[in-house]
Amino acid sequence: MGVPTDCTLVGIQMERRRILWKMSLDFLYDLSVCTVNLKRRSSFHSERNARHGPVFTQEPSDSVFPLRSEDNKVNNHLCLCVRLYRWKVDGRYIDMDLNYNLVEGNLLINHPHATHHGGVYQCIATNVFGTIVSREAKVQFAYLQNFSRKSRNTVSVREGQAVVLLCGPPPHNGGTTLLQQKKVFLLQDTRRFVSQRTGNLYIAKVEASDVGNYTCVVRNMMTNATAYSSPTPVELRRDGEHAPLLAPLIEVQFPESLHVTKGTSVKLECFALGNPVPSITWRRTDGNPLPGKIKINHSNGVLEIPYFRPEDAGVYECVAENSRGKNVAKGQLTLKDVHMAIEANLQWECKASGKPKPVYRWLKNGEPLVPEDRILVEGGRLAVPRINLLDSGMYQCLAENEHGAIYASAELKVVASSPDFSSSPVKKSMLIQRGGEVIMECRPHASPRASISWRRGGEFLKDSTRRTIMGDGTLRISNISESDGGRYTCVARNPFGTSSSTGTLVVKEPTKITVPPLSVDATVGESIVLPCEVSGDSSLDPTFKWFFNGKLIDFNRQDHFEMIGGSAGDLMVRNIQLKHSGKYVCMVHTVVDSVSAAAHLIVRGPPGAPEGLIVGEITDSTAQLSWESGPDNHSPVTTYSIQARTPFSIGWQAVRTVPDSVPGQMFHATVIDLNPWVDYEFRVVASNNVGVGEPSMQSKQIRTKAAVPEVAPGNVSGGGGRRGELVIQWEPIPEELQSGEEFGYVVAFRPLGTSTWKQTVLASPDASRYTFRNDSVPPLSQFEVKVGVYNNKGEGPSSHVVVVYSAEEEPSEPPSRVWTRTLSASEIEVYWEPITQTASSWKIIGYEVLCWEEGMQESDAEMVRVTDTAALLSGLKGSTVYLISVRAQNSAGAGPSSPAVNVTTKKPPPSQPPGNIEWNLTNSKIFLSWEHVKAMGNESEVTGYKVLYRQNWLGKTSVVETNRTSMALQVPSGEDYLIEIKALSDGGDGSSSGPIRIPKMSSKRELFLSFTIHRIHFWYNRFKVSRVPSTKFCLITMNPTGTMCLLMSVFVFFRS
User: Which of 210, 251, 280, 427 could bridge to 300 as Cys pair (CB 3.0-4.6 Å)?
Assistant: First the structure.
């Protein structure tokens, strides 16, 4: 039958269009140790201390060693562990010599040689319970041949179909692999799976990203040799057909029956193909949860149970499920060792696979099992009826063919014991409601099986209409009454003895729901209470639970639900929403019974969104719509309204329809008054007595047909321009009203009182102005004007006729009597007489004042436009002669300039800031003093000083002027102040001293602060002073004990 060929895929690799997957081939790869466990017995009920026959916890396995080319030897030690007793090689018992040694029960082969030590090894173990032989283990040398170089066929598959890629490893011995980091391996997921049993790559649903070349990589860890298969190309079929949706098909599954040795690990594989990609879940058929120790890999395709225990035995199911259906694979895991009662019937079955088909032999205690009257051996089946104590022992099934043999072992223990209730006594106290039913179990441990009888008090019970003793010894009593209360004893007998166990039955009054919840209707946003009140036995404490549509309500996670009512279990549903419609069940639990009552809540709300909106026939101003009704949410739809959206509208707007009001039973309407040649989207909104529902999905965008324009330009006007011009203006037509392509304007005009129109066509839809030029047109002539529209469908309407004046002529005279006044070194005021109306053909709209320095050209002048007869010129240079001229302006342009007037600005203000500033702060007064500023020869003389102060940097500034070099400021206490001082002159304000910060006074103690700054020179005035002399600071604190003054000298440095 050959040796097991389990293929373990270690990784899948994809790099651009080359994809690699690796396999671990568990062929002949290691000669592992053989371990035998012996245990002592104290009680047959205690598994931990029970004695039993020898059990191989680890048997010798086939071993392969790397062959060194120079000496054909292996320089490693080989250890085969055995407790007792003997070893064979090629069927011969081994004599311990220089090459073989037993070390603490281990068989040690020193310096194994390919020629002398290759062969088949077997371990024989014996104790007082029997003898077993291990499986045969071959010692061979490792090799790995190459894959066939024959190219592999291209796999062509549609996107969405499934595919299986075969590896087909080459001949090898000792093959295994480790992950290589040479390339990035494709990871398994719920869509892609590699079977450790078959080695194949399974893709449940092919995607475009799966296209590429797939290569299977095998590496021999013994020789470090690596073999690469030829690439298997995967490509997508481009026939335009789509892969159908398919229910799951489980392609990789575990055996239907699997015998597992206690303490070992077992792995179950399960993977399904399908579209959509199936999800894989695992469960036990007995309803018990999966043990916490179970490991499930990230693709859910492999379930591993480590350290297999008796409680892990059972039937396991793999469920593959998608939207098209589900598929189930199941298999039973059983523990190999068996404890059976005397006189029971034993039936074992052993299955193995191989080519050629294997034959079976059975061994008992290491010796062939010969069929006889009681023992039936038929292939892999063993049957022993009515077993006795002599049948106990170690049994082995041997399956073999010309390629080798494998063994499966199990221990049979035949047990004989009297009934024992120590581990499963009758329940001590049973509470049951009157009228109910009770089942009392009686399950003693006994071998052979015990006969069961029941008694109440001293009276043995017999079957009646209400009492039944079932075949497994269980007592069932129905329609319980108070008289059934009392002590019940189960009596168990077998040939080895008698035992009993007693429990008490207590009868309670049943629990009843006296005020059940009632079905109710509610509207979205309301709150309701569903009552649930009970009556029952006063000694029982009822527990209330509410279920909504079959799911338990978790009041800690539900904002809308609240349990109220104190001793009752009333349910309040707050701010009801449509999702709260459904079935509500109040369930009341006590230790003896459970009762429930149900009610339905119907929530009425605004209608759901209409569905299936379709736009039918379209004209230049109408569109036919049809739709299907959505959910009415328990309140019939009364009306439908239509909304539309265009690229020019702000959001969705209601539109007119025929009929004007669409009733709830009608599912079509005609939208009217649409604009031609405009893109529209539509949606439908349903309403009922509760409110307005959600709108439907918008329709596909459609465009109405083109038509002749229907809207004429508005606000036609004109006037202005240059002499000989007629300027016509209007508001352009918005794009949504142009009604078609090739939109433009037709401008018509004629002199007032004439009959012939002059026309011009403007082909731009954005045009809003037209200018007609003719030097013969007199100024301010009256014209009748109208503006029309057109597009590729024809000419539309024209605007109303309006009268527009032609351009006027420029003023012909300059302003008279221009004079000036010098304000400072940088400002001059200019005045002039206004021009008379007779000097211009129309209204003067303003004046232009020209200013330029003496010696420059008038063309270089700065210009200031004003509407009054005075202007302020600022930003001028001090002690400079300027020339000033003025000219009038109307809509036609500017007239001639007046004769230039000379004016000289004053000398600049002093550049030196006030220095040696001192300040004293006491109570609410600030006393300031400073040195007088002396003007230089080219500066204006000082006429006074300006003191500016404010509470903070952003506060409002107050200004005080003085002609002295000191002053006192009255300020509120409790605030910081910033103070600046400037010199005043005819040339303007001089340089600032810079801000000086005065700290606020304390409100609890009088604080007298004196701060003197001598000859302050500020860096921003660009004086080259690098050191400012001493700054004095004196802080005087007055208190009842005296006065303390702290004087400090501070040097302040500035950088120029």
Answer: 280
* DSSP secondary structure code for residue 207 in this structure: -
Decide if 204 contacts 272 (C-beta within 8 A): yes
The pair of structure tokens assigned to 396 is 């082995």
SS3 for 335-390, per residue? ECCEEEECCCCEEEECCCCCCCCCEEEEEECCEECCCCCCCEEECCEEEECCCCHH
Among 130, 285, 144, 299, which Cα is nearest to 223's? 144
Residue 38 CB contacts under 8 Å (≥ 6 apart), including other chains: 51, 54, 83, 127
**Proportion of the chain in helix, strand, coil states, percent, rounded to 5:** 5, 50, 50
pLDDT digit string (tens) for 221-270? 777 788 888 888 999 888 777 788 889 999 998 888 888 877 788 999 99
Per residue in 848-872, pLDDT (tens digit) is 999 999 888 888 889 999 988 899 9
Q: Which of 202, 175, 180 is nearest to 191 (CA)?
A: 202
Question: Number of C-alpha atoms within 13 angstroms, CB side, residue 791?
Answer: 19
| Cross-strand bridge partners of residue 946 | 961, 982
Residues in the chain: 1056
Nearest to 614 by CA among 622, 623, 606: 623
Q: How far apart are CA 813 and CA 897, in angstroms?
A: 8
Q: Tell how far CA 892 is from the center of its chain.
A: 68
- CA dihedral over 728, 732, 737, 743, signed as positive or negative: positive
| pLDDT tens-digit readout, 1004-1032 | 433 333 333 333 333 333 333 333 333 33
| Structure token pair of residue 28 | 């002949």
Q: Could you report the per-residue pLDDT of 294-349, keeping only the tens digit for each?
A: 888 867 789 999 888 777 888 899 999 998 898 999 988 877 666 777 888 888 88
Task: Name the one residue in this structure whose structure tokens are 């302040």.
Answer: 1052
Weakest mean pLDDT among 43-52, 549-558, 1004-1013: 1004-1013
* Tokens encoding 821: 């006044």
| Tokens read off for 576 | 């009801």
Long-range contacts of 33-38 (CB under 8 A, 24+ apart): 33/58, 33/60, 33/79, 33/80, 33/81, 33/106, 34/58, 34/59, 34/60, 34/80, 34/81, 34/82, 34/123, 34/125, 34/134, 35/81, 35/82, 35/83, 36/82, 36/83, 36/84, 36/125, 38/83, 38/127
Taking residue 957's Cβ as centre, other Cβ atoms within 10 Å add up to: 10
Closest CA to 1035 of 1015, 1006, 1014: 1006
| 3-state DSSP of 474-510 | CEEECCCCHHHCEEEEEEEEECCEEEEEEEEEEEECC
Counting DSSP H helices and E strands in the chain, the numbers are 1, 95
Q: How far is CA 392 from CA 340, 386, 387, 388, in A?
A: 9, 12, 9, 8
CA 372 to chain centre: 70
Instruction: Please name the amino acid found at residue 301.
Output: G
DSSP letter for each residue of 722-791: STTEEEEEEEPPPGGGS-SSS-EEEEEEEETT--PPEEEEE--TT--EEEEE-TTSPTT-EEEEEEEEEE
Residue 22: pLDDT over 80: no
Q: How far apart are the first and last CA of the chain?
A: 102
Q: What is the DSSP string of 507-546?
A: EEPPPEEEE----EEEETT--EEE--EEE--TTS--EEEE
Please write the tens of the pLDDT for every residue from 72-117: 443 333 333 334 557 788 777 787 776 776 565 566 777 776 667 7
Q: Are 433 and 509 in contact (CB under 8 A)?
A: yes
Q: Any idea of the CA torsion for 667, 670, 676, 677, to the nearest 10 degrees? A: 20
Cα torsion through 85, 90, 91, 95, rounded to 10 = -50
How far is residue 559 from each of residues 544, 556, 599, 900, measured CA to CA in Å?
19, 8, 21, 87
List, edge to edge, every strand of the sheet that includes 486-494: 429-433, 497-508, 486-494, 451-456, 459-460
- How far apart CA 443 and CA 424 sit, in angstroms, is 6
Give bridge partners of residue 467 from the DSSP assignment. 477
